[in-house]
Amino acid sequence: MNVPLSSDDRGGTAQPLLIVRDLKKHFPAKGSFWRLSRDKVQAVDGVSFSVAKGQTVGVVGESGCGKSTTARLLLHLIEPDAGEVIFDGEGVGAPGGIGVRDLRLQMQMVFQDSYSSLNPRATIADIIAFGPRMAKKVPSRQAHDRAGGLLEQVGLQPSLFARRYPHELSGGQRQRINIARALALEPRMLILDEAVSALDKSVEAQILNLLADLRRDLGLTYLFISHDLNVVRHVSDRVVVMYLGRIVEAGDVGAIFRRPSHPYTQALLRAMPSMDPDRRTEASLLTGDPPNPINPPSGCRFRTRCAFAEEVCARVPPALDDIAGGHQVACHMMVPGSGHSRAGTICAGHD
Amino acid sequence: MADVSTILQPIILPDTSAGAEPRSYWSTVGERLVHDRITLAVGAVLLCVILLAIFAPWAATHDPLQGSVLRRLKPVGTPGFFLGTDEIGRDIWSRLVYGGRLSLICGVTPVALATLIGGTLGLVAGIGGRVVNMAIMRVVDVFYAFPSVLLAIAICGVIGAGIGNTMLSLMIVFTPPIVRVTESLTAQVKNRDFVEAARASAAPLHAIIRHQILPNVLGGMLVYATSLVGISIILSAGLSFLGLGVTPPNPEWGLMLNALRQAIFVNPIVAALPGLAIVLTSLCFNLLSDGLRSAMDIKLPS
Amino acid sequence: MAQFIVLRLLHTILILFGVSIVAFGLIHLIPGNPLDILLPPEAPKEVVERLKVEFGFDKPLYIQYLAWLGRVLQGNLGTSVFTGLRVTGELLSALGNTFVLAIPAALLGFSLGTTLGTLAAFNHGRLLDKLFSVIAILGISMPHYWLGIALVIVFAVLNPVLPAAGMGGDGGFPVNWDEARHLILPVITLSMIPMGVIGRIVRSTVLEILSQEFPTALQAKGLQHRQMVWHVLKNAAPPALAVMGLQLGFLLGGSILVETVFNWPGSGQFMNLAIFRRDIPVLQGTVLVLASFFVIINLLVDVLQALIDPRIRR
After folding, report:
1. What's the topology of domain B29-296?
2. Helix or strand or coil: residue A192?
3. Is residue A345 part of a domain?
4. How many domains, chain A?
5. How far lies C109's CA from each of A341, B258, B279, C112, C120, in Å?
6. DSSP string for B147-173
7. Cα gap B109→B119, rounded to integer Å
8. In the prediction, which pLDDT does B9 show?
9. Which of A159, A167, A194 is the best mutation test for B, with the most CBs of B within 10 A?
10. C91 falls in which pLDDT band (50, 70, 90)?
C-alpha cells in the first residue's frame, strides 16, 4: 500500500519498519533462584518476523504463548537474552544503530485497559503530557496544549476531560487516553497489547474504528496483539500465530484465515464462534494437555496436542519455512523430505 | 462471517461527566476525613493539646519548676492548684502543660526524621536492583531482630540520657519499620502498568520516581508514620520513666510518672494524672491514623 | 518445604551474626574509652594500661569481637564487672523470672485478643464490635507501665487485695498461692498490649475473609456455623501468628518497664541495673540473649505459618 513516508524515515518504502530476528527470553522459574538447577520458563524462543511500513501485523495465540513478552522485548522493557530488533534499518542497541531511548520515541505501546494503566494520582492532561515533558523536554505549557489536541483526536473534549482523574472515567474513555498517551511522543509505530480485550463489544468497535482512522491520518504502523481472532481478522494485513514461545504460522490475513496450514492455526480457527447460525462449532482438533512452558516438548512444541504428530516431530524442531509467497509455516508436514509421512502430499490450506 | 464494523456505526460518546468538578485523590480523602466524626473530634482534641503546649507559658498557672515542701502532694481540687501538686510541691497542671511540649517533640521529631531517612532507603530498596534491595533489607532485618523497647533502652543506656539522645535512639528504632513499609509499597507500585508505560515513554528515572511512584507511596507512608507517633510518645515517656530519657527537673510526663510512684500510697489520683495525659495524646494519634487509613481506602469505581 | 526451612535457617544465622555484632558494638558507641567507664578518672596510667591489655582492649576491634564471640558460643557470657559473678548464670535465672511473667501474659493476651477479635468481626457494626474497638485502641494507646501503676493503686492501695510488688518467694515458678497472687497484677498489665494488637489484627483479618465469598459458599453447602467459623479462623491464622511472634518479642523486651513497676527480678530489671552500673559484659550478654530469643521465636513462627499456609512456602 502507498503510505506517505514520515519525516523521520530512514530506509525508504521498501525497508520494513520493524525486523525481529531470533528473539529469545528465558525467565528463571519460581523457586529456582537459590537452587542450582536451571529451570527456565522459555517464554520467547526464537521469534522472527517483520512489519512493513503502514502495515498492521496481528499476533495471535493462547494465553502464555509469549505475545505480551515479545511486545515488551521489542521496547526493551524486558531485556532480551538473544536476538536482534532492527527499526527502519538500524539495529537497536547495536553500535552505530539506534539507542533504546530513541527507539521508544518512535515506537510506543498501548496497554490493555486495566485500572492500573493510568496513574491514579495524576490528571488526564498530566498523564498525556508526561512523556513529552520528561523525555523530550517540551515545556509544560506546550505539552499540555498538545495534550488537549490529542484528546480531541481520540474523540474526547479537552474542556471536559483534561482536568479529570482516571477513576472518573469509563473503560472506553480510559482506553482513548491510553492511545492519546501513546501518540503524545509522535511515534511511527504502535504496539497494541490486548488493547481492546477488556472492553464491551460496542465500545470495542468504537476504539477499533478510532485506531483505523488514526492509522490513516497519521501514517502509523501497528503491531496488534490479541487472543480474539475476529478482531485480528478485522484489523490486520498480516497475521503471526504463536504457540509456546515460537511462531508456528505467518502470512497475509487472507491466507491465514482461508488457507490455514498449521494444525494449531486450523484448530484455533475452528474454535472461533461464528455469527452465522449455519456454522456450528465443531469438535476440537486439539488432543492432549497444554504442555509445561518450563519443560516444553522437544522438537515441535505443538506435537503433544497434534493429531498428526510423528517420530520426526519429536526429534527435529520444524523451521518456519515459506510455502507460498509470504505464507510461512513451521510444520514438518508442509516440507517435502522432512521425514514426516504426510510431507509433500499436502498443499497450503489442507483439511 | 459477518463483519464487525458493518454492524455498529460509530456512536457519539455520551457525555456522562458534564458539570461535575474534577476530584483529585487527596481532595476526596480530605472530604472523607472531614465527614468522619470521630476523626474530627480527635483532631479537635489534638489541636487543643498542641495549642496548650505551644502556649504553655500562658496556659500554666505556676512555674513548673518551682515547688514548696509545704505544698507536697496536695489532692485534686485544691484551690489554686486544681490538679494538685507533686512530691516536691510543684503544680501538676503547669507541669503537665509544659510537659506536653517535650512529649510532643519527642513523639513527632523521631518519627519525622525516621520517615525521611527510612522512606528514602525504602524507595531506593524498592526501585534498585536485587543486590541493592537485599543489602538494605538484610541490614533492616538485623535491626528488626531487636524488640523495639529493648533497642531503645539499649541505645539510650549506652549513649546516655537527655532529650537529644532519646530522640536519636527513637529515630534509630523507627527507621527499620518505615524502610520495610516503604519498600513494600514501592515494590507494589513499581509493577503496575502505568509505571511500565512511563518507562516506555523514555522518561528519565528520576522523573518516573517523582511523578509516578512517589505520589502513590506517600499515602501509605503517612498512615504508618502517624500510627508510630503514638508509640513514640509512649516509648519516650517510658525511657524517661526508667531514667534514660529526659532528665529531672524537666517536666516530662514519663518522668513525672516515675517520680510520683512513691505517691501512690498518699495521693493515688495525682500519681495517675501524667499517665492520663500520655494515654489521651497517644490515643488521639492512633485514632487519627485509623481515620486516615479509612479515608484513604477508597474503593474507586472503575 | 524442606528447602524453605533451610533457607530460613540460613537467613536466621546471618541475622544472628548481625545481632551479635550490634550487641558487641553497642559499648563502642559510648564516647571515649570503654575502660574509662570502668575505672575512676584518677586511676594511674599504668593501671589503665595494664587493664587494657588484660581485657584485650588494645587489640583491634575485630579481634576483640571474635574473641568475645568465641567465648559466647561456648556459653561464656563474661563476668559482671560489678558483682563478679558469671553473667550466664545470673542472666538465666533472671530470664526465668521473666518467663514466669511473659508466658502467662502471652497466653492471656493472645487468647483474649483472638476471642474478642473474632467476636467483634462476626458482630461487625453492632455494640460488641464497637465496644471491642474502644478497648483495643485504648489498650494500644496506653503505656502499660501506667496501667500497672493504676492497677496497683486500685487493687493494692485503695483496696488492698493483691500485693503491690515483688515475686513473693525466691524466684522461679510460683509454688504456692501466695506466690501466684504476686503474678496476677503484672501478668494482666503485660497482657494488655498484646491483647489489643492481636485483637485488632484478628478482627481486621476475619472481616476481610468474611467479605470474600467463600464463607457464604461454605454455609450454602450445608456447613454448620461452627465449622464455617473454624475454616475462617484457619485462614486468619497466618497473619495473626506473625503478629503473635512479634508480640512475644515485645513481651521479652518490654517487660523491663513492668518489672520496674512491680519490682520483679526479671531480665528487664537485670538489664536496667546493668545500664546504670555501666556493667558492660552484662549489658552485652543480655541484649544478645534477648534478641537471639526473638529471632528464634520469629523463625519458629515463620515455619509454623508455612506449615499452615502452603502459599507462603514459595
Report:
1. MetI-like fold (1.10.3720)
2. strand
3. no
4. 1
5. 75, 26, 20, 5, 16
6. -HHHHHHHHHHHH--SHHHHHHHHHHH
7. 15
8. 42
9. A167
10. confident
- Helix/strand/coil for C141: helix
Tell me which chain B residue has its CA closest to the CA of residue C23: B154
Q: Which domain holds residue A220?
A: 18-30+54-236
- Rounded CA gap, C180 and B74, in Å? 36
Task: Write the DSSP assignment of A7-22 as a string of letters.
Answer: TT--S-TTS-SEEEEE
Q: pTM, whole model, 2 decimals? A: 0.82
- Which residue type is seen at B47? L
The identity of residue A69, as a single letter, is T
Domain ranges of chain B: 29-296
Q: Is the Cβ–Cβ distance between A83 and A50 less than 8 Å?
A: no
Nearest CA in chain C to B285: C141
What is the C-alpha separation between A337 and B1, in angstroms, rounded?
37
pLDDT tens figures, A73-87: 999 988 899 999 999
ipTM: 0.81
Contacts of residue B34, defined as CB under 8 A and 6 or more positions apart, other chains included, come to B40
Phi, psi (rounded to 5 degrees) for A58: -95, 140
Radius of gyration of chain A (CA): 21
Q: Is residue A279 part of a domain?
A: no
Name the most confidently modeled range: A120-134, C15-29, C162-176.
Answer: A120-134
A30 reaches C (C-beta below 8 A): yes
Region C165-184 average pLDDT: 69
For residue A168, what is the DSSP state? G
Surface of C (2-21) touching A: CB under 8 A? 3, 7
Residue B110 has pLDDT above 90, yes or no: yes
**Rounded average pLDDT over B155-167:** 83
